[in-house]
Amino acid sequence: MHPFSYTRVSDTREALAAGSRGGRYIAGGTTLVDLMRETVERPEALVDISGLPLREVSATERGGLRIGALVTMSQAAADRKVRTLYPVVSEALELSASAQLRNMATIGGNIMQRTRCTYFRDVTADCNKRDPGSGCAARDGFNRMHAILGTSDSCVATHPSDVAVAFAALEAQVHLLGPDGERTLPFADFLLRPGNTPNREQAIRQGELITAVEIPALPRPLRSGYLKVRDRQSYEFALTSAAVALHISGGVIREAKVAAGGVGTVPWKLPAVEQHLIGERPSESLWAAAAAKAADGARPLQHNRFKPQLLNRTVERQLRIVGENS
């Protein structure tokens, strides 16, 4: 681990001042500290923001939900409002990691976490995300866990977060505070596809701080859930996953929110699936026909050619689970 300075701040003013000077924000540290140990990340200064008052889960005036950036994964998953209004979020969090990690990791840190691509974490391997211009060892290497959607010639790494898939499905917003004031980004714009700059993963500016993630109000009744397919049952990253939320009224699907994980360079929203569902009556044939569109545009690699079919099946299964319980 390379030498670094450490500053603990007690208010947002101090945090922004330290961040604008190049300091890296840290709270739970469950990802950043690991990357520092492996010398993948080499920040010169850490700014500990764990003492900031960003730990509240609250209902918004319009009927949505605002989750503070420093709410831990376990706190968010257990919160009554989250479990009642958006169970897809609590399920995604509970399927994400061990209890110990969930007790430490924060919501803000979770959506900022970096890929689990083995080549990214191997400092001897070529990786454009870690070392721009060096190449992408995963493209011709072992790429079973890698992305099939949103890839580029520069990068095929998947985004690892489960709860980010739920946020993407629900069309959440990320609230930011920086030297120039407050701003809000749609979740779909917050995480960036690699393109030619895979080292730039979020649309966050120097010194900006995530203050909250806000889930908008959606029609009621709303049934939602998260399904994660992985090699082993406990604490493994997704091969594929599906976050689904359906509003069914009068026997007809009025609203559909669907996103996939484990297959994209960012959490992958599935508008074609959603559009196929809206206005239709739930049925086995509908779930299958809608899910068949989930892998549209996929570009599988040598070792993950199974993922398009697995993705379709994952989405179909979760549509059925949520639809039958609505």
TrEMBL record:
Keyword presence, Oxidoreductase: yes
UniProt keyword list: Oxidoreductase
Protein name, as recorded: Xanthine dehydrogenase family protein subunit M
Top-level taxon of the source organism: Bacteria
Record GO terms (molecular function): FAD binding; oxidoreductase activity
InterPro entries: CO_DH_flav_C, CO_DH_flav_C_dom_sf, Diverse_Substr_Oxidored, FAD-bd_PCMH, FAD-bd_PCMH-like_sf, FAD-bd_PCMH_sub1, FAD-bd_PCMH_sub2, Mopterin_DH_FAD-bd
Domain FAD-binding PCMH-type: 1-220
Record bears the keyword Oxidoreductase: yes
